[in-house]
């Protein structure tokens, strides 16, 4: 199991589907967001007074994130992306 | 449904109309603002003490925003723009 | 009506008059300030503790501002400039 | 009358005199300070908690300031310089 | 013994194993994270009010960290890496 | 008399002596510190809450400072250097 | 005697020994840390509220520091390095 630190989030990419209900990024966009599923979240950002500001995303959330954000890694045979919560644009409700 | 995170706002672009009451951006402007309708807003910016500072714009507001701000995305067949509230210049009242 | 957000201010440019009482920017200045009339002001800057710091300029103030500051826009047939209060140098009393 | 905003100060340049009591900037200095008389001061810097931190310089002070600081403007036929108080190096007592 | 200062952490690199349970960084990743074992931690980050914010990682934690983070050093014949806790991406639980 | 503003300090350079008790900067150093005598100090840095944090150096202190820091000026026929206290490295006790 | 200001520390370099107990920096490291002995420490960093945050290193500590940090100076015939505490990586216990 991977436990992200601080305000980091681990995401499993979801292939972009071309169905009516999916998110489809237009080909011409310069900075394409991508879609994924949150698999682990850090405890949150530690403020200067020592208090912890919990994250807004939680495990199993479907999210849209900036394309070039974060670092890719492989764990137990699967590909993940680890990024900061601020690189996540929106939750797909 | 797309729920933006933090101080992000989702906007649907509105075509610039050339009527007397519409916003018309002069052609020669280097950095042209654009017009849109707010479709979803985040909960607000989280300050260092953990408190949440709510956004000033709300759903259905008509707004003027910086042209190159934000990230474009398509959801359920429609084009949206997701940007930070600070990239919004003014509300059209 | 345009309602600026936060610490933004909407200004209508005033042509520089060459009378003794007007502000005349020397031709050789690298960074020429310009003169305008405030037509709308935002509610102010939101500090990190959530309090709002009201602006010092108000509607109808005549102001001098940095030449290249802000974004130009046209509304109901008139040209305006929208900029942050910090780009305003002085009020003409 | 020009009323500077925030931590800005309006200065009238004073020609550098080559007398024993004047400030003479050495010709070889890369970044030459200059001398002037304060003609108007802003109310001060607004801190994040909304309090105002008054300026240390006041009208009629003779000051030394950084050469390339600020913006030049002409008002009622006179040339002035408007700069931030932090660009003022010292008061000539 | 080496005692890191502040928010610094000393890590002993662990060779990337190609077993199913290990972390395998894909060859094509631009910015490859790496795996290590924490051997010493600083007392934490000192906040502006003087309080100390303890680190989240502790000795013997297995961690994933950014490839080019930190400074390499040799101590008593062994190679270590000293980096800031913020360069650590996740703990392997 | 020159009264520096804020956290600024006015220094009179002292020639580097090559005696055993003097500070001798090695010729090969890329960034050579220099030696001087403090002739005037500002009231201190004004913190965001309006309180003033007094300086640690005082008049007549002999100090070592960064070579390229500050601005040179001439006053009543003498050469001085005006710099921020943070550019002073150490007091020679 | 040299008394460093604020969060500065004066260090006397210690030659890297190639014994088993010494720190040996690998030749290939891009950014080699170095070893030294602390000879003087400043009173600490002055926080924005005026309180002083004392340093963690003390006189006689053996420390490892970043190679290109700080400024070299000679005092009473000896070579020293003056740097900020944040450039010190670890104390050798």
Structural account:
7 copies of one chain form a homoheptamer. Chain A has 93 residues and is an all-beta fold. Chain A is built from no helices and 9 strands. The first copy, chain A, has strands at 2-4, 8-13, 33-41, 45-46, 52-53, 62-66, 71-75, 78-84, 88-92. In chain A, a hairpin with a 5-residue loop joins strand 4 and strand 5 (52-53). The radius of gyration of chain A is 14 Å and the shape is globular. Residues 27-31 of chain A have low confidence and may be disordered. The A-B interface holds A 20-21, 23-26, 29, 31-33, 47-49, 51, 53, 56-57, 64, 66, 85-86, 88-93 and B 1-6, 8, 10, 40, 43, 46, 48-50, 71-77, 79, 82.
Q: Quick check: average pLDDT of chain A?
A: 85
Q: Biggest sheet of chain A: strands side by side, in what order? A: 7-8-2-3-6-9
CATH C-level name of chain A: Mainly Beta
The number of domains of chain A is: 1
Q: Largest beta sheet of chain A, briefly?
A: 6 strands, antiparallel
N/C terminus separation of chain A: 26 Å
State the CATH topology of chain A.
Answer: 10 Kd Chaperonin, Protein Cpn10, Chain O
Order of helices and strands of chain A: EEEEEEEEE
The quaternary organization reads as homoheptamer
Strand content of chain A: over 45%
Total count of helical runs of at least 4 residues of chain A: 0
Question: What structural category do the secondary elements of chain A indicate?
Answer: mainly beta
**Strand tally of chain A, please?**
9
**Cα-atom radius of gyration of chain A:** 14 Å
